[in-house]
Every structure is written in C-alpha cells, then in structure tokens.
Write a structure and sequence with these properties.
This is Lipopolysaccharide biosynthesis protein. The protein is about 35% helix and about 20% strand. The chain is of the alpha/beta class. The protein folds into two domains: about 140 residues, 3-Layer(aba) Sandwich (Rossmann fold), CATH 3.40.50; about 130 residues, Rossmann fold (3-Layer(aba) Sandwich). Strand 5, helix 7 and strand 6 form a beta-alpha-beta unit.
Length: about 300
C-alpha cells in the first residue's frame, strides 16, 4: 500500500489530492497544528529537540490517518522539507516501512546553504530515500532523480485562443530574464499574458493557470539561476499539447523534446520564432506523455 502525505498547498491540493483510480493509494493532506505554527516562530529549527511535540505537530485528524500505515507499506512525503516535520513523521510511522521524500524545488532554494547537506544527511539517517526533479542536485547530493509531473484537468467547455504567449511564476531571481523575453516577444507584435507573482501575492488557483494555458498558443518557461531540472511549465505544455518557449537548454535531453514544439531561448535563432509559432504542434507518443502524469510518476514508488 502506498501512503502519500503532502503539505497543504493549493498546487498540491489540485495535483495530488486524489490518487489515480488505478492506484490503491491513501492520500493525506497534512495540516500543521496552529500552536506549532506559533512555537516555530519562537523555537525555530530547534523545535525537533522537544520530543513530546512529535505527537502534537499536526492537527488531530492527521494522526488517525497515520495509524492506517502498516509495516511494509510505502510512504511518500511531498514538500515536507522541515527537519522537525520529517523527524515527527519518522517517529509516528511503524517500523519496516519503505520511506521516500520528494523535493519539488532546487535544493539551494529549499534549505539555507549552511544547513543543506546537514538536512539531507539528517533525512537519510531517518531512513528516507530521497528523490529530486533536478538531475544536477541528484548528482551533487547523491539523491535519486525522478522526472517532474503534473495532472491533466478536464474541462467541459472549449477554449478559444486569446494569447500567443503565457507565463505564470514568481519573479524570484528571474526579473531581468523575464523582462528581456517580454521585450523580444513584444517587438514581434505578439499578444502576451504574463502573470509575475511575488511572495506576498495571493496564489493563483491551479485550475485558473491551466485555463490560461488552454487559451494560449505557447507556454513560456523561465528557470531560476542554477536550476537544471524542469519546472511544471514544460509538463503543462506537453499534457495540453501547447508549444513551449524555454531558457532551459537541458530540455533537449528529454524524451518528449521536439524542435517543432519547443523553442530554446538563447540557443535557437530568434529569427526562427515566427516560423516556430506558425507550424502545427506535433503529437508526442502517448507512452512518453504518460510518464509525466501523476499515474506515470507514481510508478517509482510502487
């Protein structure tokens, strides 16, 4: 039996809130107890030294869900990156479980540099096998690489094309690159929908994001500095059969790469962009596409 425990984020609530019907999964959304949220501000990372709090970190309903885990079961943690949370889960789970942790962001953005290797070692010592979407992080920190994934949402209505290019993401350290690409695309007269978010902005529901994808000809993907792994943008373009413009040169290594569908900004000639956008999207083999769905992604944890 596979048990998936994930943090209460809007994105994960949409992507992983229900296991695919072909999988016998037990999916649990982890809500942190309000008292613990307050104590974290006071104690910081030292909270995991207070052993009695290991059974108080989550809201009460979560503990009833954890009791369903049996010896020999598989347990996957999504976005549970704080050592105190991982430590608490390890104490609550029965012995003999197969434990996995999935990192959905670059490690240099997940942990402070001074604690990065220490936190990885700590999680491994608790018995977790660590997976990341970033192949460079996998090599640098001796983790398992596993591809990025997303979900195919189904809508009853049909969507008319409103935009040539669509981008959604936090600005982070990409402001210069975002502005450069916007200016280039505007110089060609393309219609743009760029939603640049800051940490204080209210997150856009994932369903709304996909609606914009469906209303656009091409999805724009701008990776963070030092990031090699794919964001979800290329997967969304793949699942919804949209063109992709990306500055991630590593995209050409993936099995779904097709130069008629993917334009690599900074490598491909910008003069070829009008032709790229004008030619039809070329279908990708469904066996390849399925690797990047939730169902295909979960096979690594069977």
């Amino acid at each position: 039996m596979l048990h998936i425990f994930y943090k209460d984020y809007d994105l994960l609530n949409t992507v992983i809130s229900e296991a695919p019907p072909e999988y016998k999964c037990h999916v649990v959304r982890l809500n942190i107890h309000p008292v613990i949220r307050v104590l974290r501000k006071v104690l910081g990372r030292n909270i995991h030294y207070f052993h009695f709090l290991s059974r108080k970190i989550f809201v009460p309903s979560v503990y009833d869900e954890i009791k369903q885990v049996k010896e020999g079961d598989h347990v996957l943690l999504l976005e549970m990156i704080l050592p105190s949370e991982v430590w608490s889960m390890s104490r609550l789970l029965p012995n003999g479980c197969n434990l996995y942790q999935w990192y959905w962001n670059p490690l240099h953005k997940t942990y402070p540099e001074k604690n990065l290797r220490k936190n990885i070692l700590f999680t491994k010592m608790l018995g977790f096998k660590l997976f990341t979407f970033d192949d460079k992080d996998a090599k640098d920190y001796n983790l398992e690489y596993h591809n990025q994934f997303s979900i195919r949402l189904h809508f009853e209505e049909r969507f008319a094309i409103k935009f040539d290019f669509f981008f959604l993401g936090k600005t982070k350290d990409r402001h210069t690159e975002i502005e450069e690409i916007k200016n280039v695309l505007r110089s060609y007269g393309y219609s743009l929908k760029f939603l640049e978010l800051n940490d204080i902005d209210i997150p856009i529901p994932y369903e709304e994001n996909i609606r914009y994808v469906l209303e656009s000809k091409c999805v724009v993907d701008i990776v963070q500095k030092q990031q090699c792994g794919m964001t979800m943008r290329p997967i969304e373009a793949l699942l919804y059969k949209k063109k992709l413009l990306t500055n991630n040169v590593n995209i050409s290594k993936y099995d779904f790469y097709n130069p008629n569908n993917v334009f690599i900004y900074g490598r491909d000639s910008i003069g070829d962009l009008p032709h790229f956008l004008s030619i039809p999207y070329e279908e990708i083999d469904e066996n390849i596409v399925n690797k990047y769905t939730v169902s295909g992604w979960l096979k690594a944890f069977e």
